Amino acid sequence: DGIDQVILVGGATRVPKVQEVLLKAVGKEELGKNINADEAAAMGAVYQAAALSKAFKVKPFVVRDAAVFPIQVEFTREVEEEDKSKSLKHNKRILFQRMAPYPQRKVITFNRYTDDFEFYVNYGDLSFLNQDDVRIFGSFNLTTVRLKGVGDSFKKHSDYESKGIKAHFNMDESGVLSLDRVESVFETLVEDKLEEESTLTKLGNTISSLFGGGGPTPETGENLTDSVQEEEENLAEAGKEEQGEKQEQKSSTEDAGEEQGEEKQQSPDQAESAPPKAESQKQEESEKLESQDPKEKRETAKEEEPSKSSGDSTATKTEEEKKIKAPKKQKVVHEITMEVDVNDVPDLLEDELKSSMKKLQDLTVRDLEKQEREKSANSLESFIFETQDKLYQEEYQFVSTEEQREEISKKLSEASSWMEEEGYAAATKELKDKLAELKKLCRNLFFRVEERRKWPERLAALESLLNHSTIFLKGARMIPESDQIFTEVELSTLEKAINETTIWKNETLAEQNKISPTEKPILLSKDIELKIAALDREVQYLLNKAKFAKPKPKKEKNTTKTDSGKNATGTSETENTIPPTEGKQEDTDKPEDIGPAKEPPVAEKVAADDEPGSDTGSKKEKTEAGGESRKNDEL
C-alpha cells in the first residue's frame, strides 16, 4: 500500500515476463512506462559520473544508497562476577542498521581492553530472510580483526588516562565496508605556566592601553583549539552517558563502563546535551571574575588616578595575574597494528589466480581472432562489390579491353559465390588469401586508372615550374656585371636543367600518345615528381643565394672627381663675376683710391680686337679711352 507507482528503468524491463512478475509482486494494475527505459538509465549514469568527477560542474545530484543487510561488531571479554570469579562475556554492537544510508563513517570504542585482542565484523539479524535465502547467503562473518600492540601502548603511556581503543570504519560510495585504522587514545591534564613578561612587552601593553587597547586580550589560537577539543570530549562523554542509561534499562547486570558504539555524526539529542554544561562552566567563571572585580576596583580607587586609561590598564594587569587558568587537556593517539582476515570474499589461491588470469587471456585472444576474421570477411566482400561496380565506369573501360574485364568479372563472381556458400565458415587466412588473389588480378587495371588521374595535376605543376624558371634565368642574365651575384657556372647549370626537363617532357608525352591506353603507361607520375624536385632544387639554390647576398660597394673615385669638378666650376664662376662689380663700385664711390694705370695694350692685341662686329673690340676701346683720361688727370 505504501507504493504509489513502479516506474520501469532499463532495457530488460521490456521483457513481458519481467513485467508480469513485477505486477504480481507489487500488486498493481499497471506499471509506469512514461519514460524511455534505455535513455533514463544512460542519462542518469552519465549525470552521476559528471557529478562525481571534478572536471564538470553540475547541479547538486545526491544519490543515497542503503545497506540492505545490517552489520554488527562482536567481541568477547572477561567479566568479574560478584563472587570474584571470572567468566567470558560475548558482546554485540550494531555498526550499521538495516537500510542505513552510505557513504558513512562509524567509530567504535573499546574501553575495557588493556592488552591485545580480536573482534569480528558480522552480518546482524537476518530474520527477515527465509531459510532458502539464508542458506544461499553463505558465511555471516565478514572480517576478523586481530589487534597487536595494545599492551605496549598502555605501558608507554602509563601516566596518561585511557580514553579507549577506537576502531574507524568506512562504508564507501560502492557499499564496500573497510576498517581504516585502529588507535589507542590517551589524555592528561597540563597546567599552563604564566610566563614573565619582558620589558618590551610591558611597554607595548602600556602604549596600546593609551590608545584604547587596555581591555582584556582575546585568547590565543592555541587556547581556542584546546577549547574545541574539550567541547568535543564533552559531546562524546554526553553520548556515552545517554547510551549507558539505555543499556542499563536493557540489562541491569552490565557495567556502566562497558564498550559502547559511537558514531562520528552525533545525534541531535547528544549535540544539544553539551551546551548546558559549557554554559554552566562559563557562568561559574564569570561569577568568579565578578567577585574579584570589586576588590580590584577598591584598590585602584585608593591609588592616584592620572587618567582612566592608565587605571584600566593596571586593573587588567592585576586581573591577568590573579586569574586562575584551568588546566588544558592534552590528547595522545597511538596507532595500533591490525591484521584483517576478509571472509566474505576470500582471496583466491595462487593456482586459482593463475588459472583465472589464463582464462581471461584466452578470452581476450579469442575476441581478437574473431575481430580479425570479421574484418577480413568484410574487406573481401566489399572489394568484390566495389570492383564489379568499377568495371562499368567509363574511366576503367577506357584503359581496359573487353577480354580483361570479362576475366576480372568472372573471378569476382566465383569469389562472391564462394563467400555465400563456404566463406562464412572459412578461416581468417583463407579469406586473406582470396582477397590477395583478387587484388593481384586487378592491380594493372587500377594502376592505369590511377596514373591517368594524376597526370593533369602533375603536368600542370611541371609546366608552371618550367615557365617560372625560364623567367628567373632571363632576369638573372640581365643583371649588370658590376652587380652580378651569380656565377656563369650556376646560371649554365640552371639553363641545362631547364632544357633537359623540357626535352624529357616533350619526348615522354610523344611516346605516351603513340601507345594504346590499355597498355602500361610510359609517363609515370613518380617520374614527373622527380623532375619537379630536381628543377626546383636548382632554382631554390639560386634564390637562397640572392636572398643572403650582400650588395657590392660603389667606387669612391667617381664621386671625388665630380665633387672637385663642381667646386672648380663654382670658384671660376665666382672669380669671373665678382671682380667687375667691385671695379664699378670703386669707379663710382672711391675715385681717389684708384691705382696707377696699366700699360697700353700690345699692337697685336689691338689689331685683333679691332675686328668688325666684335663686342670685345668695343669694350676694349672704352677701356683704352678711360685709361687715357685717367693718365691725363694724373699728369
TrEMBL record:
One of its GO terms (biological process) is endoplasmic reticulum unfolded protein response. The keyword Transmembrane helix does not apply. The keyword DNA damage does not apply. Residues 205-331, 550-635 are annotated as: Disordered. Its main location: endoplasmic reticulum. GO terms for cellular component: endoplasmic reticulum chaperone complex; endoplasmic reticulum lumen. InterPro entries: ATPase_NBD, Heat_shock_70_CS, HSP70_C_sf, HSP70_peptide-bd_sf, Hsp_70_fam. Keywords: ATP-binding, Chaperone, Endoplasmic reticulum, Nucleotide-binding, Signal. PROSITE patterns: HSP70_3. Signal peptide: none annotated. GO terms for molecular function: ATP binding; ATP-dependent protein folding chaperone. Residues 238-253, 279-307, 583-596, 617-635 have a biased composition (Basic and acidic residues). Residues 565-579 have a biased composition (Polar residues). It is found in: Endoplasmic reticulum lumen. Belongs to the heat shock protein 70 family. This is Hypoxia up-regulated protein 1.
